[in-house]
TrEMBL record:
<protein>
    <recommendedName>
        <fullName>Response regulatory domain-containing protein</fullName>
    </recommendedName>
</protein>
<dbReference type="InterPro" id="IPR011006">
    <property type="entry name" value="CheY-like_superfamily"/>
</dbReference>
<feature type="domain" description="Response regulatory">
    <location>
        <begin position="3"/>
        <end position="102"/>
    </location>
</feature>
<dbReference type="GO" id="GO:0000160">
    <property type="term" value="P:phosphorelay signal transduction system"/>
</dbReference>
<dbReference type="InterPro" id="IPR001789">
    <property type="entry name" value="Sig_transdc_resp-reg_receiver"/>
</dbReference>
Length: 104
């Protein structure tokens, strides 16, 4: 499976997403902000990043980015992201977006 970097500032959401990705068979490294992600030497295949995470700069991550947002369902995919996963999402939706991004 994939090595996935999770950047999520909400501790509960980060823990839940880490568990969900583990259930899907992925290896996960989770951090609370972009600075920690950029400082990490961990090599990921993709990143799942909450759009509102403090510190901004998530577009500097050197991997495809799946942005997450609790905003409007019809919001467009940010131009810096490969895909947008709207909260709340199901485990099946999470698996589908990861597969779609990794196939690119």
């Amino acid at each position: 499976m994939a090595r996935i970097l999770v950047v999520e500032d909400d501790d509960r959401v980060r823990a839940l997403l880490t568990r969900q990705l583990g259930v899907l068979g992925h290896e996960v490294y989770a951090v609370a902000d972009v600075a920690a992600a950029l400082d990490s030497a961990w090599a990921a295949d993709l990143a799942i990043v909450h759009i509102g995470v403090p510190g901004g700069g998530w577009t500097r991550l050197p991997v495809p980015i799946v942005a997450t947002s609790g905003g409007p369902r019809d919001a467009p995919v940010p131009p810096e992201a490969t895909a947008l996963l709207r909260k709340p999402y199901t485990l099946a939706e999470l698996a589908e977006v990861i597969e779609r991004v990794l196939v690119r």
